[in-house]
Write a structure and sequence with these properties.
The complex is a heterodimer of chains A (69) and B (226).
Chain A (H helix, E strand, L loop, with lengths): L1 H6 L6 H45 L1 H9 L1
Chain B lengths: L5 H22 L13 H28 L2 H33 L8 H14 L1 H6 L4 H28 L17 H42 L3
Helix pairs in contact in B: 1-7, 2-3, 2-6, 2-7, 3-4, 3-6, 3-7, 4-6
Classes of the chains: A mainly alpha (69), B mainly alpha (226).
Chain lengths: 69, 226
């Protein structure tokens, strides 16, 4: 980006060109940020599922109790 | 399932986008009339083309869903349209910025290309509310597919109607691509490839995430955890 900034000719349209490219990258960044939040949520759910599975395999009696409730 | 090849695709996207940026700012010559402002076109036009193609692809995938009744086609159609909507926001914003720099106005209502693109965008903006207003998953997928097909057919018709209209001011890029100097043409094509690859990567990423969440939900249900 710095390289591009130095390549920009200094005229009145610089701002518009920069704004267009910045908007594009910001949109992309927002999308990636939303996806990373979703991904961490999925990761948490996988971890919870694994913990529950381990807990169930260690205490088989607990499973039956849960099912009857 | 969907994650296969995602890494390669992501690397290819970053590489092509990097090359495209390099070409835009260091290789492509300045346009005689527009000057430096014309550089916006290397991002705005590919975004618009990929957006419209994405909407049409969404319609084609919806046809496949109605033919086979397989849910995966509906999911693909949904993701194609969802991603095109995001790209459409980018197209509208970059277009407005260019209009402000070139015409002195953020929006020109008498310009058919702008208004027709906005109509397409607003049409597809109703896709998600329509889809999620229906609770039954099978009906939801069916209705969404019908919408995607009808709207997908509208996109090329709308594009043609604008092309055939005589009163236009919007610069033509596709029709006059052969008239572009070789350096500009190459830059434009690489930018188009970069944006198309970005679209494909994000679709694949979204599909992988959705598929994983779905699998996780199914596993939890089978194991009786939730």
């Amino acid at each position: 980006m710095i390289l591009i900034a130095t390549a920009l000719p200094k005229n009145s349209n610089d701002g518009y060109v920069a704004a267009a490219y910045i908007v594009f990258f910001v949109l992309l960044l927002i999308y990636v940020a939303i996806m990373s939040v979703r991904l961490s949520r999925t990761e948490r759910a996988v971890r919870k599922l694994r913990e529950d599975a381990v807990e169930r395999s260690e205490t088989p009696g607990q499973t039956r109790e849960r099912e009857t409730v | 399932m969907y994650g296969r090849g995602l890494r390669t695709l992501s690397i290819a996207t970053v590489a092509v986008m990097g090359i495209a940026l390099g070409l835009v700012f260091f290789y492509a010559p300045l346009e005689a009339e527009e000057g430096f402002l014309q550089k916006i076109f290397y991002i705005h036009v590919p975004l618009a083309i990929v957006t419209l193609c994405g909407f049409v692809i969404g319609g084609l995938l919806a046809i496949q869903h109605l033919r086979t009744r397989e849910q995966r086609w509906d999911m693909r159609s949904y993701v194609a349209i969802h991603m095109s909507l995001i790209f459409a926001v980018g197209t509208l914003i970059t277009g407005s910025i260019w209009a402000r720099g070139s015409w002195g106005h953020w929006w020109v209502w008498s310009e058919p290309t702008l208004v027709s693109f906005l109509i397409v965008f607003l049409l597809y903006a109703t896709y998600q509310p329509l889809r999620f207003a229906i609770e039954d998953p099978e009906r939801q997928a069916r209705y969404a597919s019908v919408f995607a097909i009808v709207a997908g057919a509208f996109v090329p018709l709308n594009f043609l109607a604008v092309r055939l209209s005589t009163e236009y001011l919007h610069p033509r890029v596709l029709g006059s691509a052969s008239n572009l100097p070789a350096k500009m043409q190459l830059t434009f094509l690489v930018s188009l490839l970069g944006i198309a690859l970005l679209y494909a990567t994000l679709c694949k990423y979204e599909l992988t995430a959705k598929h994983t969440r779905k699998l996780l939900k199914a596993r939890s249900k089978i194991l009786g955890f939730r």
